[in-house]
Amino acid sequence: MTAQTRQAKLSNQNGASSMRQSRRARLVIYITLILAVVAALAPVYWMLTISLKSEVDQFASPPRWLLFSPTLAHYAEAFVSRSFGQYLATSATVAVLSTICSVTLGTFAAYGLARFRMPAKLNRRLSLWILSTRMFPPIVSAVPLFMMMRDLRLLNTMAALVIVYTAFNLPFVVWMMRGFFQELPRELEEAAMVDGDSRLGALFRIILPLVVPGLAATAVFCLIMSWNEFLLALVLTQTDAAMTLPVGIAGRVTQYEIKWGVMSAAGVVAMLPILIFAMAVQRYLVRGLSLGAVKG
Amino acid sequence: MSAQPSPTSQKKPTRWRWREPSLAYVLIAPTVAVLLALSVYPLIYAVKVAFQSGTGESTHWTLEHFTRLLSDGFFLAALGHTLLYAAAALTFEFLLGLGLALLVDRPLRGRGLFRALLLVPMMLPPVVVGVVWRLMLNPDFGAINGTLRSVGFNTDMLTWTASPKLAMLSVIAVDVWQWTPFIFLVLLAGLQAMPQEPYEAARLDGSSAWQTFRYITLPLLKPAMLIALLLRTMDLLRVFDQIFILTEGGPGFATETVSLYIYRAAFRFFDFGYAAAMSFVLLIITNLISAGYIRLLQRQEAA
Amino acid sequence: MKVKFDNVTKRFGNRAVVDRLSLAIDEGEFVVLLGPSGCGKTTTLRMLAGLEDVTAGDILIGDVRVNEVPPQHRDIAMVFQSYALYPHMTVAENIAYPLRVRKITKDEIRRRVRRVAEMLEIQSYLSNRPRELSGGERQRVALARAIVREPRVYLMDEPLSNLDARLRVQMRGELKRLQHDLGTTTVYVTHDQAEAMTLAHRVAVLSSGQLQQFDTPMNIYHRPANRFVAEFVGTPGMNFIEGRVDHRTGTFSGRGVVLSLNDPQLQRLKGRERATLGIRSEHVQVAAAERDGWLRAVVYVTELMGNETLCFLQLGDEKIIARASADFRAEMETSVWTRLDMDKADFFDAESGEALR
What is the distance between the alpha carbons of residues B61 and A186, in angstroms, rounded to a whole number? Predict the structure, then answer.
């Protein structure tokens, strides 16, 4: 292809016909995306409406998507007369406590792995092992954990959940924070040491302030994972004393008479904090979900 | 400028050996301890239980749990359901996710908003997803059947989660709904991290859209695809939460996956030994598959 | 404070990155470690800082052996190649940091930061963050942070290499002035021989972990200890002609060129058949017209530098560079006449490269 024809081909692509084509293409793309968003949000919206509809409206046919008179009765019932308020408090407490523990322990471990010159093989083996504990199907540890907690008389306690969730989130914290630490140049700590600071002093004064965004995102991920967790909570807590919100909801669903309004109200409350948090850490979402493999 | 040694150098004796690795071990030890106690110990415990039988005086080592697996119809069915579920969900999620990512990967107005909104399904607690779709799929007042009816379809046969034939389809659909955004996000990130030059070179060379996609985009996207597929596969093989809420493994046992069967064996029949044995098989299968992916990934990175 | 390296060796696995280095640096001296990438100069500096362990040998600051002493307690300050400024702190906080960790009072800190800022003329951006500053400004901040502590030794790891050419020349002068005013022992690492020549009291030339020569810049330039030093120092590099010595005729023959040797030179080359001749380009003259006793050469290319003209010549089969005056012109492939000032020539052993004096 001579230079001239290549030139001609390029200039053709800038012709008027291609402008029309791209505008049409853009329209198609926008429509597809809007459809996708509708598909993603409609079911959630439906649950929201059920939580706000009176029983009559709930069973209406054809389904009333927009026109109905809202009521807060279901919310009142869920959180005041039934125990969902307690479940909510339990979920929040367990999530916060386990996050604090796992982030603290995990960040220190991550710093050790990221910075210190250990024999390289040991470092890699350790990292992989920590990662592999994340790969377990939870059911594999659920049975032994149940038996462990039973022997320790910790069944149906919040303590059991905090401990288990801390262990559950640790590998993730280590993996994420290690990545963030590795992004900082080693010279920062070296400068701090030459300037006279101790190794730990440099960690607190120099390094940690620089990873605060990553640290916050990791903490939010832990909160989300603890809040959403279902299987281990199901196995370890059967009484109201330490029941988390997901288990509370599930328990009601599998009963005979299902009060959908109450269920939906509980569902809405269960998902709201998560959505807010998730939007806050959107920037780190891909990184968190892919365990740092893809930097989003 | 004085030549006196500064106070600090006289404070510490020069005998103090500064060994870097020891501080590292102190930092790592608590984490390792917790993981040993709560991840490794349960595993060992599970080994013990899986290879033993009998109670109290009559406990003995045995392989009977494992041999039982081979002839257990429920287990084989559960295995089949799990593999079918994983394969089907993965395929749809991948195709949809890739398509969406390719669409969104261009300067669009409101792209950030689209991304944020498309995230919602996968951030929901699985329990909530279960509730949402039980509402949607309810044959009588659910939105799906309601809408179908209002345009004239007869929905008598469409009992979704209560129908032996449609239940599996329903749970797969729910998974696709929830997790396509994940694949979408990861692939989008992969696309946006790709270098510009190959594309410009391809345009100058006169490559068509399809050719560009096939010879440039796809190969460069491979690492992100493998990661997304790996993580999704691991999650699909051990699925529990949303199926538990949607169908509890039913109707009958039509949607019982391996995780659900293990749960049933352990907490309905209290057959811990059997449950532990099954857990191991699941663990081995999961490890084998993930090892395969990881090897693919490493070969990719070496290239 | 004096600094001494006593047979210092550093090994990574089996590889000796620094090999039995011995240097004695005097109080207040500005010593430059010069060499190509990988020669071990940065590793040497880091061992002095305490950021690398010493495999064998001793490092002494003052007369105290500091091998086991951690960096915090060596009372040294370091300027890193990338400056290593703390991104989340303002300039003032960056400078104050070394004082803060030593628990010096707030008033004293403020006083010292102010003084150093004036010295380096950075008062106007004391409350900015590093990312808002240009390369040159960041470099001054790094310097300020090093100076504020009044340490015993300054260590600098290629601090000018990230600056553009003009700024580099300007900062060179300022650094020299600064060190003179402060009078503190300074060890400076660079691969840029111009920096070494202009800044140092003495230069230590390193290659592959071994010390080649430790001497004043003038001596390094005019009396290089071996071929490596001669080649590394000076721009353009020294011309080398490898050839045979004929004691009978008193000549030195390269490929296609024969030069006559004087008696002292023949004495130096006694007993040798082969040697390498080295002559700097400023000692190679070139003229357009034939002159008596001059040799004919062919022009390969000329570079008009503005203040002089560099001529790349083919003499016989040898390639040499000559410096000519700014108005000298010659077309490529034309013949010119050249003369090598043999009085200024150096000779090196054909194998080892050692200078023959």
Answer: 53
Provide the 3-class DSSP secondary structure of residue A174.
Answer: helix
How far away is chain B from the Cα of C67, in angstroms, using its nearest Cα? 9
**A150-171 average pLDDT score:** 87
Contact: B128, A267; criterion CB under 8 Å: yes
- Cα B253 from Cα B261, distance rounded (Å): 9
CA angle A190-C50-C116, nearest 5°? 60
Question: Position A43: which residue type?
Answer: P
**C-alpha–C-alpha distance, residues B131 and B242, integer Å:** 9
Q: Is residue A286's pLDDT more than 80? A: no
Nearest CA in chain C to B11: C73
Nearest Cβ partner of C182 from B1, B14, B16?
B1
Low-confidence ranges of chain C (pLDDT < 70): none
Confidence of residue B132 (pLDDT cuts 50, 70, 90): confident
Whole-number mean pLDDT of chain B? 80
pLDDT tens digits, A53-89: 877 777 766 667 777 778 888 888 777 777 788 888 8
Total residue length of chain A: 296
Inter-axis angle of helices A84-115 and A245-253, nearest 10: 130
Q: Mutating which of C43, C73, C76, C80 best tests the A interface, going by the most A Cβ atoms within 10 A? A: C80
What would the mean pLDDT of B205-228 be, rounded to a whole number?
81
Q: Which of A52-66, A254-268, B37-51 has the highest mean pLDDT?
A: B37-51
CB contacts, 8 Å: C149 with chain A: 195-196
Expressed in angstroms, the distance from the first to the final Cα of chain A is 40
A250/B38 touch (CB, cutoff 8 Å), yes or no = no
Confidence of residue B11 (pLDDT cuts 50, 70, 90): very low
Q: Cis peptide before C87, with omega less than 30 degrees from 0? A: no
SS3 B94: helix
Q: Is the pLDDT of residue A110 over 70?
A: yes
Q: Rounded CA gap, B102 and A230, in Å? A: 34
| Chain A residue with the nearest C-alpha to that of C77 | A194
Examine the pLDDT at A141 and tell me if it is beyond 60. yes
Torsion region of C13: left, alpha or beta (phi above 0 gives left; psi -120 to 50 gives alpha): left
Instruction: Give the number of C-alpha atoms closer than 13 A to the C-alpha of residue B244, restricted to the C-beta side.
Output: 25
Inter-chain contacts counted by CB atoms under 8 A, chains A and B = 287
Strand partners of residue C42: none
- The per-residue pLDDT of chain A, averaged, comes to 80
pLDDT at residue number C322? 92
d(CA C173, CA C198): 8
| Tally of CA atoms within 13 A in the half-sphere of C45 that contains its CB | 30
CA distance B291 to B269: 33
Burial (CB < 10 A; 0-12, 13-18, 19+), residue C146, is buried
Which two three-digit tokens encode residue B90? 């993965």
Contact C27 B3 (CB under 8 A): yes
Tokens matching residue A10: 């390029």
Contact C20, C40 (CB under 8 A): no
Torsions phi, psi of C21, nearest 5?
-85, 130
Q: How many CA atoms lie within 13 A of A54 on its CB side?
A: 7
SS3 A74: helix
Identify which of B246, B82, B58, B92 has the alpha carbon closest to the alpha carbon of residue B166. B246
| Of the candidates B39, B92, B77, the residue with the CA atom closest to the CA atom of residue B232 | B92
Predicted structure pTM score: 0.78
Residue A76 or B1, more confident: A76
Residue A85 class from Cβ within 10 Å (0-12 exposed, 13-18 middle, 19+ buried)?
middle
CA distance C102 to C107: 14
pLDDT in tens, B55-75: 666 667 778 888 888 888 888
